[in-house]
Amino acid sequence: MSMTRQNGLRHTIGVLVENQPGVLSRVAGLFSGRGFNIESLTVAETNEPGLSRITLVTTGDQHILEQIIKQLNKLINVIKVYDFRDTEFVEREMALIKVRAEQHTRAEVLRIVDIFRAKVVDVSPHFYTIEVTGDDGKIQAILELLGQIGIVEVARTGKAALARAKKH
Amino acid sequence: MKLTGAQIFFECLKKEGVEVIFGFPGGAVIDIYHEMPKHPSIRHILVRHEQGAAHMADGYARATGKVGVCLVTSGPGATNTVTGIATAYMDSVPMVIFTGQVPTPLIGNDAFQEVDIVGITRPCTKHNYLVKDVNDLARIIREAFYLARSGRPGPVLVDLPKDVIQASTEFRYPKTVHLRGYKPTVDPHQGQIHRAWDLLKTAKRPVLYAGGGVIISSAHKELLRLAEMLRAPVTTTLMGLGGFPAVIRTEDGQRALHPLWLGMLGMHGTFRANMAVQNCDVLFAIGARFDDRVTGKISGFAPKAKIIHIDVDPTSISKNVLVDIPIVGDCKKALQKLNELVEKEPIPNLEELRAPWLEQIRQWKETYPLAYKQEGETIKPQYVVEKIFELAPEDAIITTEVGQNQMWTAQYFHFTKPRTLLTSGGLGTMGYGLPAAIGAQVAFPDRLVIDVAGDGSIQMNIQEMMTAVCHELPVKVAILNNRFLGMVRQWQELFYNKNYCATCLDASPDFVKLADAYGAVGLRATKPEEVEPVLREAFSTKRPVIMDFWVNPEEGVYPMVPAGKEISEMLLV
Ligand SMILES: Cc1ncc(C[n+]2csc(CCOP(=O)(O)OP(=O)(O)O)c2C)c(N)n1
């Protein structure tokens, strides 16, 4: 039996790791060394001392995803890999967007900010900086609308994700 | 009482039962060397190049099953080991590599002889450590040995900054290892074993395909038992050679091929092994990883077969070839459990059931046996290997370099015992054979250890002859001297229009004089009738020997599956 490798689905994976030097590069190196793709990656400490959580988004067919998950599990400092394929999960990303906000566009910018429940976090004579949180679709949408007005800079955090709590 | 890092280093090694270190000193590890004479129970083998140290530790580990240890200095000392580490990593060899490092305050400053060896070796070690505090030293060494030998074994590197080695602390060796993220599955799932048995008992044309995992987990007896109970033919990978007894003694004391032995499979596998795999209905992979040298064109590999796969490393399963019944676990344990089932429920009419398949295999063997003709005035390299097999005792350890020499050894030396072939299968490292032979000879001073070499490969670590002579390690090197980088020349001949660019080795040293210069014995054979006397003389000498066999320069390794073809598409001559 054989398998072909092809590009496939986008996929979010959570990785609980020991917070030790080199862990991130082990994880990232695994991806580059095996020709897997990373689309976004976030890391920060968890509530448990000594542990960090990495959330990464990757693309690949089922077979590649299987390998990614197995290879991650094989790393010594990896405690647990959360494969969100068959679980419901919440994912969020934060973006900071600096837009041109001149006299005649300010109202429009504020309206968009309002609709998306975003926040203006910095104001200067010609620019607003906006903070927005949401899933991928929401961030894409606000970027598109603000893009028509004039985006100067964008910084996105990449996704953070957690499995949904089970309802009893 | 407080001990220095250097003292702790030796105390830990003793706790781990280390008997020998292969090493080369330098400023960053001088404190460890300063401490060394106080620990005479640990033998130190001074090598001539750090790559040699890594391969020796590897050869020692493969021959014994114990963890091999090497110790080198920072910077160039550390980088020189990388090829050896990658070699061990690809073949799952348990090893701990200690590298010196500049003092912690200088790390990152481009200090003299500083290199980020932990960064460099991240992709080719099972795990690695930079020890930043002497209080962590004992625990890390304990973990390193545990990781190296457990689960799927592999090399683990420990980087030792000079100030850590000089600092002192209370010595406490942890009794247990606690690694939250590391719990290898060694006990196979009983349900999967049952499923495997269900498939095997209905198989008409089964093939057992064993890899290095059989040797690593000492599952050779279980493999033989299973093969005999199922009357199933067995093929192994290069790494699996010795995991199944290729030859047995017949009633009149002669040696004959085991009736179920197919030979190695893959690119230079036998015709019958490859045909058997391509036509089998159940392929049972045991501690093998479907390397591309084995599978050829993957989409055409074992097209008619349901596949069962045992491996201790879950990443190996369904990595290259989709598997129907995966069994994660130790090969020996899995085979023991399976054998129990087979014993309980023998297959009815086994002989009859198997007869057509075994007959088909016999015919394949008859049509295209492994063969060459020793005729004329020049020595055939295959003849040298066959003679070595004839004359060497059964427990002889054979190492190889890489190239044609390696493949002829795999084809014409019939391995019967595990851990008697040490060869770089995964990485294909020229220069591996001599230091690996030295490592094995250190472990087994009384066994015959022979490196079958090419004239190209041997020059990659020839300097280790000096190590062998110094330490009175009587390794034998048999150079199949074809004045070519033979395997590359063969590809040029077959696929590149005989454009022998950069593969002709007209200028080589006089290997007999070279042996002499090192204080070893040099012997030469240029005619077929000289082969046997040279081997006999070498084998009866208690000193290191280099044998220079002038063989036919344009001999090729056959059968051969061209890269990218299916393994049934063999070039036969
Ligand atoms: C370190 C290294 N460099 C290059 C190669 C590529 N290579 C594979 S086989 C081979 C030729 C080996 O020649 P030789 O040692 O003379 O052995 P022969 O094939 O003639 O038996 C080469 C260059 C390799 N395997 N390892």
Structure description:
The complex is a heterodimer of chains A (168) and B (573). Chain A is built from 4 helices and 9 strands. Chain A has helices spanning 23-33, 62-74, 106-115, 136-149, and strands spanning 9-18, 40-45, 51-60, 78-83, 89-100, 119-123, 127-134, 151-156, 160-163. In chain A, strands 5, 6, 7, 8 and 9 form a 5-stranded antiparallel β-sheet that branches. In chain A, strands 2-3-1-4 form a 4-stranded antiparallel β-sheet, with helices on one face. Mean pLDDT of chain A is 91; it is low at 1-6. With 573 residues, chain B is α/β, with parallel strands linked by helices. Helix content of chain B is 37%, strand content 17%. Chain B has 22 helices and 22 strands. In chain B, strands 3-2-4-5-7-6 form a 6-stranded parallel β-sheet, with helices on both faces. A 6-stranded parallel β-sheet of chain B has the order 13-10-9-14-15-16, with helices on both faces. Chain B is globular, with a radius of gyration of 24 Å. At the A-B interface, α1, α2 and β4 of A face loops of B.
